[in-house]
Each structure stands twice: as structure tokens, then as C-alpha cells.
Amino acid sequence: MNIRSLGYAFIESKDPNEWRVFGTEVLGMMDVTAEYDDENVFLKIDERPFRFAVLPGAENRLQLIGLELYDKNDFEQAIAELESSGTHYSKGSPAELKMRGVLDFIRFNDPAGNTLELYYGADLDYVKFVSPLGISGFETGMNGSSGFGHAVLPAVNLEETHAFYKDVLGFGDSDYMHFKFGDDPEEPGLALKFMHVNNPRHHSVALFGGESIAGCIHLMLEVKTIDEVGECLQRVLEREIPITSTLGRHTNDNMLSFYMMTPGDFPLEFGCDGLLMDWENFTPTKTTLPSHWGHKFAL
Q1: 59: left (phi > 0), else alpha (psi -120 to 50), else beta?
Q2: What's the superkingdom here (predicted)?
Q3: In 3D, which of 14, 144, 137 has the Cα closest to residue 68?
Q4: Buried/exposed 65-98: b ≥16 CB within 10 Å, e otherwise
Q5: Is residue 129 part of a domain?
Q6: Is the domain of 68 the same as that of 165?
Q7: Which domain holds residue 76?
Q8: Which of 149, 232, 244, 288 could disulfide-link 259, Cβ–Cβ 3.0 to 4.6 Å?
Q9: What is the dihedral of CA 50, 55, 59, 62, to 10 degrees?
């Protein structure tokens, strides 16, 4: 498959207005809910009409992520490959297509139960992104072609799920990481598989060999400057939002970032300086040290 980017996230929330406040007053996203005629919250960061859609529901959790394909031919080929793999899928309704601003999409679950959508023909509304906090911009590539950032998803059946992303969805390996949370030699530790699609981001999706009741290990947004990261950290501290990892710089993608808890009951990484890769001259790596410095996680 020719997946180009991580296009959008749909989030279920007991109170979508919490995400409106968090998205605009903490992260600096643009509230474009007024462009829609329903009770959902839509948050924008670039040329795309929205990147996060927050829907009312009984739980706080990540509902699904959308993966962008190049065109109709790639979309039809993707359907054929899913059918060949025995993966059950459903097609988007006209109302769902309109909400997403895409020409067509299908929905299915990966072997770990994470819900994915494959789509093509995304709208560009050309409404200028204006951050209510003065953020200069989020790193998403030309016309949003590199996606909104990355998502780390839970996968207890890590090897099976990893094989699905590689062999069926066509992801490439970026990095493998296995680490422990303490000094106990008997602790088995946990593994992470970092994977890329057809854009320069070091990874668009990673799989974590564990569980998450919120359906997500974390989402990531990338801004342009270290000052914008620091200013967000200051807002988080002033609002006493739980920090799930201190400021640090990762080894595998060079991201300088910190992690905070969201209204979705899962963390969000907010960073800058992520690597842009040349996949034709790249060999997948195995990383034993998560960060050059910092990133002390609160578990």
C-alpha cells in the first residue's frame, strides 16, 4: 500500500468542550467547530480542515486514526490487499465522507483491535491557520503531506500486529526499542516498534507491546521552535496539568519534547526538531537508550 501520512484522529470524550479548551488554550490549535453543524469539536493546525475531531461519548479514549492514500488507484489497490489478507472492512457513509472532507474511505481493525481508516482525496480548505496562542505553525509538510505527527498504539500481540502493518499495510521499519522501567533483572520490559510511511517523518505510527484503557499510548504534535515547546510547558505547569514525561530529547528521532496528560485520558507529546529521513538510504535501527537526556516518565 502507498500510505502517505497520518491524517486525522477521532477522539471520544465525555465532555468535548474539555478538548476545545485544551486544544486552543494549551496546545495552540485552532477551533473550527463553527464550520460544522453538529455537537462535535474540530481542531485545526494546518491547511487541512481539521486534524482532531472530538465526538461525545461514554468514554474518554482515542476512537480511531485515519491514514491517507495517494489517489483512487491506490485506494482500490489497498482494498484488494485487505481482502486478500482476509481483513474485514466497512465503507464510509456519505455523511461520514462529508464530515471528514474526503472522497472515500474504509474502516477496519488491526490485529490488536485498534480502529483504522484508509482514505484518499482529502479537502484543502485553504483557511489560514491562526493559532490563538501565536504559535508560528505545526510541522506537517507541504499542504499537510507529512501528516499531523505520530500515534503510538497499544498492541499486546505485538509481533502479529507488527507483521500486519508491514505485510498488509506496507509500513516500513524505522526503529526497534526494548527497555525496562526499573533495575529489577527479572522485569521483562516492554517493546516498541517504530514505523514509517511514504513521507520523511521518522515514524508516523509506533506499536507498544502493552495495553491502554484509553486506546492510545500517546499522540504527538510538532511545532517549529524550542521556545514554543517551552511556552507550552509553562502553560501546562500553570494549569497543573499532569506531566507524564519531563522535557528531553529522544535518540531515534531527535525530537525535543515533553509529554502531558490530555482530556482523553492518554498522553500527548509536544515537541520540535524531529528528524526528516531519506528512506532510500536508511537501515532500520535498534535503540537501547530512549533519550539522550531527560524524558523521565511518570508511570
Answers
A1: beta
A2: Bacteria
A3: 144
A4: bbbbbbeeebbebbbeebeeeebebeebeeeebe
A5: no
A6: no
A7: 3-120
A8: 244
A9: -20
Edge to edge, the sheet with strand 267-272 lists 285-287, 172-179, 190-196, 205-208, 149-154, 218-222, 267-272, 256-261, 243-250, 291-294
Same domain, 99 and 157: no
Interatomic CA distance for residues 222 and 205, integer angstroms:
14
For residue 41, what are the β-bridge partners? 54
Find all residues with CB under 8 Å of 226, minimum gap 6, and list them.
Answer: 256, 272, 273
Question: Cα(224)–Cα(247) distance, rounded to whole angstroms?
Answer: 16
Q: Which amino acid type is present at position 206?
A: A
Chunk the chain into consecutive blocks of 10 residues (it has 299) and report each block's average pLDDT, rounded to whole numbers.
97 97 98 86 96 97 98 97 97 95 97 98 90 97 95 97 98 90 74 96 96 95 98 98 96 96 97 96 91 88
CB 267 within 8 A of CB 260: yes
- Please choose, from the candidates 111, 15, 3, the residue with its C-alpha nearest in 3D space to the C-alpha of residue 66: 3
